[in-house]
Design the sequence.
């Protein structure tokens, strides 16, 4: 466990150490007159891109689009061309859809960046610029640090985004702060696991920068790693359908960040607590994150939630005696 | 029932009859130099916009974005401005998030279009251009016809989209063809209801132009109207998490269109039928749609699926003795 935490911190530090290289790459890229940014990934790699899409939509005058890579390949957006930047991620570097997306983008003359854990993977070889994470396990937060370095760097250059240094300074606190989040989350995670160990159906709820975490926690953790039904529900959509299934037996895992999505999530909580007691609320405000400017806390939403949720996953897997590494199909049978 | 079908056809014909007015409106709008199109809606109204977003992404050189209206309001995209067109829909015309979206867009100088069933609703009064559907019940397909008329009209003007007439001619067949789809779906829908009446958990799966239907069927029908757990899963994401919960007891409702999403959906079927027999596959190819050019069938994917699914909903509600009109909260309690 202690070793895991050190590995985790190392992977974050490694991501932070790529900043100079990323800034240099972005300056070089922007000589190509980038007019749109396309993110393509699958599952957990896509989920972290949702936050990047939101941040760019809010702050940038160039359009940003996040796609499931398989869908991107079949859709082949008309805007894809020599003024596009495709940003991809795949931990193994072998995800076929992601590698195909890179091929398609290159054929159209787009610039390509890839994040992967493997230097000698197909993805590393295919993209114009590769950034490696040296994470031994899940690389999500390390990748997200580098994604932030890229998008904020683009926005600094193209949109005169003034808070670049403040965002970077906030990211620099993550190796210490996220380790602390994990410690602080330990007891709540334990309580969660005890209380919910026999449940088989969940809704996970988020909006804005907590949406990607709600999405990933449902499909990549509860479904993929625990074989439990878990539906990710966007807080803005909750009142237009899903809330009708909520009664005293519903189990809601609600993710509350400090970004623009917060009021949408608060509305879900205000309503739902009248009808079920089975609300698990993770609020980034519960974590002090020392050294982070108040105004920057919103951007750290996905990091803090992901670090806390790691503990929830760990404790749930332990008490259910269902290790997070077990798969029925993934990597075991052809598909 | 016969009356319902006539009402349904009338609402489609009414939507088709708006074409001249819509073409005129688009020509007028484009004098404003529209540089991006934003769709904002909630639940079922948002779901049909997903198809429009996809079609524009594939065929248009101006960016298109579909947002949950509540999220749009909090995000307030930087690209929103006097060169934006906001397209909204709300059957009642009273959805607060949607009306707020219109206010925000107008403050930023954007042009606004609204679809609603009520001439004297707030939405009707707020938007620059209103188009009424005269549907007595669900207005989804009528709204989608008008949405298609708008986006294809925009693409004809801005992108030289050459198949405008062919698309419009395909839409003209819908009053007859969708009535026929409903008849043809009747027996399959009956079998579905018999077989699945006691199930409480579903996955609905789609991609491309079937994705909006998969999304809406899960959240607006199975959850909102039948109080059953139903998770919409994008076919491209299925293999990156959700498929791990699939065993012989999983219930999959799989929507197969004839657009770019088809191969993604086929992959889900090829895999899943090895592990569960409980696959309900709706394939638009099962419906002849006479008079529709082969190349245009893809665009009709959401219409054909929606018409067929109407029957599935009707039969399921009947056999479960749970009318589609019953709500726990919607329109009953404050939220």
Sequence:
């Amino acid at each position: 466990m202690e070793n895991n935490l050190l590995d985790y911190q190392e992977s974050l530090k490694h991501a932070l150490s790529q900043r100079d290289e990323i800034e240099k790459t972005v300056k070089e890229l922007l000589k190509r007159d980038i007019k749109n940014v396309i993110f393509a990934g699958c599952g957990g790699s896509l989920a972290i891109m949702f936050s990047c899409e939101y941040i760019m939509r809010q702050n940038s005058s160039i359009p940003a689009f996040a796609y499931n890579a398989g869908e991107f390949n079949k859709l082949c957006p008309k805007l894809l061309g020599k003024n596009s930047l495709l940003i991809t991620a795949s931990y193994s570097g072998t995800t076929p859809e992601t590698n195909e997306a890179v091929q398609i983008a290159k054929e159209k003359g787009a610039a390509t960046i890839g994040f992967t854990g493997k230097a000698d993977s197909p993805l590393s070889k295919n993209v114009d610029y590769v950034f490696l994470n040296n994470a031994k396990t899940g690389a999500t937060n390390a990748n997200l640090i580098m994604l932030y370095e890229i998008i904020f760097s683009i926005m600094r250059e193209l949109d005169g985004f003034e808070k670049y240094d403040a965002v970077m300074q906030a990211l620099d606190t993550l190796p210490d702060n996220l380790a602390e989040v994990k410690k602080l989350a330990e007891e709540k995670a334990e309580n969660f696991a005890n209380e919910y160990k026999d449940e088989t159906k969940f809704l996970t709820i988020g909006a804005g920068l907590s949406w990607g975490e709600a999405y990933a926690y449902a499909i990549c953790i509860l479904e993929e790693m625990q074989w439990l039904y878990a539906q990710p529900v966007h807080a803005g959509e909750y009142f237009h359908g899903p809330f009708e299934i909520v009664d005293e037996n519903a189990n809601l895992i609600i993710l509350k960040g400090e970004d623009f999505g917060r009021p949408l999530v608060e509305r879900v909580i205000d309503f739902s607590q009248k009808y079920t007691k089975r609300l698990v609320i993770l609020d980034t405000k519960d974590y002090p994150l020392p050294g982070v400017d108040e105004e920057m806390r919103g951007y750290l939403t996905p990091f803090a939630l992901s670090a806390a949720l790691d503990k929830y996953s760990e404790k749930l897997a332990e008490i259910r005696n269902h290790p997070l590494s077990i798969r029925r199909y993934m990597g075991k049978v052809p598909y």
About this structure: Chain B is about 50% helix and 15% strand. Residues 174-196 of chain B form the longest helix (23 residues).
